[in-house]
Amino acid sequence: MHSCRYNSDIRHHVQNTIILLCNISVEIDRYKRVFKRCYYELQKCINVLVGIDGSRQAKFAFYKATEIAKKNNANLYLLSVTNGQKFPDSTPKGYGFADNSIYQPAVDEMEQQLAELKQIAEDSGVNKITTDVLIGNSKEELAVNYPEKHKIDMLVVGATGLNSISRLIFGSTASYCVRVAPCDVTVVKTDNSNKPIDIKKSIHR
Asked: What confidence tens digit (pLDDT) does each residue in 122-148 have?
């Protein structure tokens, strides 16, 4: 009788062990599927946009964006926007942008800067880089129009890129981007060594 009870206990233990192993196998398969899905998600190219305005702060933002793009095999977009002033005209809307030729020197300068930054990004290992210099409302272009058009996943901006008078009148571009951008926004406040940047030395004068 003791032998029968012993054998019954063994069978019960074996059955429980088999059920446990089956459950473990099911969980392993589930985690494999989750890991595989996460892996493929990470392998998808994301689009990273950085705003460039010529300031030191924007350059630090560029370096951070370059690192993000490199680590994630992302498409890197470098965008500079020259603020275009509107004036009354005879169009149906009643206003338009001034003759773009008056902005050409600024556009040429920023195109040169973006070309140099593109080379730096390429040398660091980023393969897919797009540069654009636009004329218009810098906040709207950087925070809304360009991200929506190019399906941007992350926008990287410096903490400030304007002089004190412009910030007082218009508010900072960074804070505007955080409020209205349709994507994640990273505001850079540190240098390449992750040390706080002296804002006073980083803005335009």
From this structure: 999 999 999 999 998 889 999 999 999
* Cα–Cα distance, 17 to 25 (Å, whole number): 12
CB atoms within 10 A of CB 146: 21
Angle value at C-alpha 148, between 145 and 150, nearest 5 degrees: 105
Sequence-separated (6 or more) residues with CB below 8 Å from residue 55: 158, 160, 161, 202, 203, 204
If one counts every other C-beta atom within 10 angstroms of the C-beta of residue 56, the result is 17
CA–CA distance, 38 with 26 (Å, rounded to integer): 18
What SS3 class is residue 55? coil
| Residue reference for tokens 């993000």 | 68
CA angle, 99 as apex, 93 and 100 as ends, to 5°?
110
CB 154 within 8 A of CB 66: no
Q: What are phi and psi of 121, to 5 degrees?
A: -65, -40
Confidence (pTM): 0.68
pLDDT, tens only, 140-195? 999 999 999 999 999 999 886 554 444 443 357 888 899 999 999 999 988 777 77
Instruction: Supply the angle between the helices 56-72 and 104-124 in degrees, to the nearest 10.
Output: 40
